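User: Please predict the structure of the protein below. I'd like the answer in structure-token form so I can feed it into my own downstream comparison script.

Assistant: Understood. Taking the following sequence of 339 residues as input:
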Amino acid sequence: MEAVYTHGIWMAETIQQRTRSQETFWLVVTHMGDPKAAFLLVFPFTYFISKRAGVAVLWLAAISEWLNLVFKWILFGERPFWWIGESRLFVNKQPNVHQFSSTCETGPGSPSGHAMVTAAVWWVVVSSVGSSLYSRTHSVVLSAAPYLLYVVIVVAVGISRIFILAHFPHQVIAGSITGFILGVVLSRRVPEGRPLLFFISLSTGLLLSALMLHAGLQRLGIELSWSIALAKKWCSHAEWIRMDTAPFSSLARDCGALLGWGLAQYWKPGGWSLPWAPRALSLAISSMGLYHVNRLPLPVRPQGLFYSLFFVKFVLVPQIVMVLVPGLVHFFTHKKKKD
């Protein structure tokens, strides 16, 4: 693996030097590829266009990120920003690379979570758009356009992760392929209309199985906090280390979102039926609501409190998008029509 890692570092250096003027673009792309963006941006945008596609995005985002966490605990995987210093292979010739505010993630690096979740979630979006275009136009060329966009999005997110030194190329490729497979398979098995007990069991099962895996690996003498220590050691700015990039934050987000989905379906089975204008209004209000929910500061100590509140924050996400905001919009627009 040493040769693979070394070539990855030189590739990152080449990408940084040749596309340095596009730094802002790559930083925006890597933020858009963040698994968090799948819940806070892609899910509401898709849901108000197609309910089934929207809940499929939520489903794929949660399951693919959970699996990514499990893979990382099993496969480990270095990250470029700490491997440069830890390997001690660049003492005589340091690579001319730079870190960024998004670089210092604390989990293991293999496979790339950004690439994996992006490939899974956006497959739902483009396949839905492609099918819709084909049913309306019967044009193979036109219906193929979204799939070309899919490739561009996945490749761009992968390059952005290499650019900021968060991942090696092979980790991005592994994440993209795995995410694509998950998108194809799981988009056909979306648990719509299931009872609340199903989602409670699913959320609890994913949480407990991950905790049991974590405890089992530790019992075998595998220290799973190794990546956090390396991230803190080699990150060029201590303030770039964030709790929401820790592995347990991903676990809390996924389990919270799935429970929130179940609660949303329980409160309002089938969701609200809205015309296009109220849907657009609901999307705008939901986006503002999720923006402020995401910005809510959480206490980082004790850690258990942080993860509990982080869990609650993402339980709220489906409630806001699927129940609260469209319900309020329906109430006021329906009342206005009556008047």
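That's the full token string. The chain has 13 helices and no strands.
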